[in-house]
Amino acid sequence: MIYLDNSATTFPKPQSVREAMGRALRDFGANPGRSGYEMSVRTTGAVYDCRRCIAEFFGAKGPECVIFQSNCTQALNLVVKGTLQPGDHVVVSDLEHNAVMRPLTALRERGVSYTAAETFPGDNDTTLDSFRKAMTSKTRLVVCTHASNVFGIRLPVERIAALCHQYGAKICVDCAQTAGLLPIDVEQGGLDFVCTAGHKGLYGPMGTGLLILRDPESAPAPLIEGGTGTLSKSFLMPEDPPERFEAGTLNVPGILGLRAGVEFVKRRTPEVILRGEMEKIGYLYDRLAAMPFITLYTDRPREPYFVPVLSFNAAGKTSEEVGRLLAKTGVAVRSGLHCAPLAHQKMGTEEGTVRVSPSVFTRREELDGFLARLSRGIASGK
Length: 382
Prior knowledge:
With 382 residues, this protein is of the alpha/beta class. It is built from eleven helices and 13 strands. The protein has a seven-stranded mixed sheet, with helices on both faces. Strands 9-10-13-12 form a four-stranded antiparallel sheet, covered by helices on one side. A two-stranded parallel sheet has the order 1-11.
């Protein structure tokens, strides 16, 4: 199989990730923070070490700023629903994923409003001015993607964060497409909340996600209450993170697998990984642009305005038809709508696109194989 759906989930996973998850099931099989026997204590330490590793990777103040979630969507919901009150206003970009837009739409019934700021690919000054014009005296939160999951368009989130703080608002950044590819420093970047998946550019397993807090003193309210193994006499959740947001048993195999994924990225560095993947996506762009039956929707991806995610369509075929055609030949891509209706409205692709995205493991011959199978399939109509 030629796998080019890495912006959904990276595959394959590094050997170190698979080994870490196996070791978790073998050596760390007790609940962390629940008991004093040796395996429980050992598991507690392993989970803490993972927090410390991730805090360092994202420039957070300490392990208490790292909150484990089951995915990026859950982390975003925690921030949005745990922060906003009736009468609050939110600014989003016109590229947002439904992980942002559906919670905000649900909160409209509670009197929360939002404005979508227009983005201008390749023109960060105009994009920033668009966010500035969308801000009001009631804006409490800006929620924006670091990079579009459909078109790879990257936003200047550090500059947007500085703008937010001028208006007394906080920023929540959806880093699902950028964690592991771009350097992200919550403290230096002024990023109040960073939400990300563990199973994409961090090369961890599915079922893992992160909320990184810039200031644990200004954390959102929890969405879920339950057992934490601490302060068990009280019917109230603990006040301090991370326990305040981690009711129930943690996904220890996933967490230890995620730590191994982060270590994998650290050894290579995000900058090196990004450079390699941008070369691959640029190669694909050039080859696709030379095919008369292919429509592309952005300029050639380049730093610092894009990440390696590319959408296209083929003349005379729906994106789903192209996806099925490629699947029959052993090529895995994402086709259709990508849970980001605002982005599709912006780019005029309401019927969907075919999306390709490489990983660190993608080889040039696989790119050539994809291009050849796409060309033959479109030509034959089968």
